[in-house]
């Protein structure tokens, strides 16, 4: 479905651009701060946590531009980790048997998440000859990469977002500050071997703030 919308949007942009406006493409590099807050519910126990990462993210874009307005499609070809490091936790469970013997079980848990296939449909409006406002919609795939002692997996999810920002253009160069607010999401784990759903669940909210330099050809 994502590829369908990409092809459709590019086709419309090219058709409109040939008739009414300039078609241009470009490259960008964004110093991006990724912030995530969420919780994990496991066996009735809820744990809250947060993750962050600062990274440089490149992208390519195609747009049609009129005198005051432009419409564009931006694609990030690389993946980005949500956290700057893998989250690890050691859980110890203690149980008492029918006798008075006490046993302990140690379980090592680790988790990481990765963003990929980020696509943005955006529009800009010039306020002055050099200053513009930017807004749009985005979609990204979030892939979980966990190693849980239970053998369960949380899987992946596509997340929608809205973005807005302000920028300055000088000839072919642009510098902009953009905030992207992603929809809240939740995932329920299942055991990989059987596909049986468990009661474990994660819920999270993801935001990014990017200082972005672009060059349009």
Give a written overview of the molecule.
The chain has 217 residues and is mainly beta. It has one domain: Porin (Beta Barrel). 9% of the residues lie in helices and 71% in strands. The chain contains 1 helix and 13 strands, in the order H-E-E-E-E-E-E-E-E-E-E-E-E-E. The protein has one helix at 2-20; strands at residues 22-42, 45-65, 69-76, 80-81, 87-96, 102-111, 113-126, 131-144, 152-153, 156-170, 173-182, 185-191, 197-216. The chain has an 8-stranded antiparallel β-barrel. The radius of gyration is 22 Å and the shape is elongated.
What is shown here, in short?
The chain is mainly β and 217 residues long. It has one helix at 2-20, and strands at 22-42, 45-65, 69-76, 80-81, 87-96, 102-111, 113-126, 131-144, 152-153, 156-170, 173-182, 185-191, 197-216.
Under CATH, the topology is which?
Porin
Low-confidence stretches: 104-108
Count, helices: 1
How many domains? 1
CATH class: Mainly Beta
Work out the radius of gyration: 22 Å
Query: What are the secondary-structure elements, in order, as H or E?
Result: HEEEEEEEEEEEEE
How far the N terminus sits from the C terminus, by CA atoms, comes to 29 Å
CATH architecture: Beta Barrel
What general outline do the C-alpha atoms trace? elongated
Estimate the strand proportion: over 45%
Largest sheet: 8 strands, antiparallel, barrel
Q: How confident overall, as mean pLDDT?
A: 80
SS class? mainly beta
Report helical residue fraction.
Answer: under 10%
Q: Going across the biggest sheet, name each strand in turn.
A: 1-2-3-7-8-10-11-13
How many DSSP-defined strands? 13
